[in-house]
Amino acid sequence: MGTGRAFARVELRRLTKGIMNPEFSVELIKNMMFQAVTLSAPILLTVLVIGLSVSLFQAVTSIQEQTLTFVPKVIGVVALLVILLPWMLRSMIEFTRAVIERIPSMVN
User: Domain locations in the chain?
Assistant: First the structure.
């Protein structure tokens, strides 16, 4: 779980040479997008698996209740957030700290 954070810090350190340049901007945006995907992927995959399972159950049993898909997804996301929220917050804080620490070196 820590490889993304280490990658972001190494890339930001490597590109910061005392000036804000286009390469640094592109790398920063790339790291931000990677961070967003890393943080949202577990939630999206959980919702995908639960939705597919409930849809399969509905198709097999011929139950077409609309609220049947919503409740398991909400329960799954809340349970996942309870488990992963400390990691998600730590990851966001470390990335934000790495970016803020580089601000003085970006300005000449």
Answer: 3-106
The confidence band for 20, taking pLDDT boundaries of 50, 70 and 90, is: confident
Burial (CB count <10 Å: 0-12, 13-18, 19+), residue 33:
exposed
**Is 98 in a helix, a strand, or coil?**
helix
pTM for this entry: 0.72
Q: Is residue 17 predicted with pLDDT exceeding 60?
A: no
Buried b (16+ CB within 10 A) or exposed e, 74-96: eebbeebeeebeeebeebeebbe
Which DSSP state fits 62?
T
Question: ∠ CA(82), CA(85), CA(88), 5° rounding?
Answer: 160
How far apart, in whole angstroms, are the C-alpha atoms of residue 96 and residue 83? Answer: 22
pLDDT of residue 34: 95
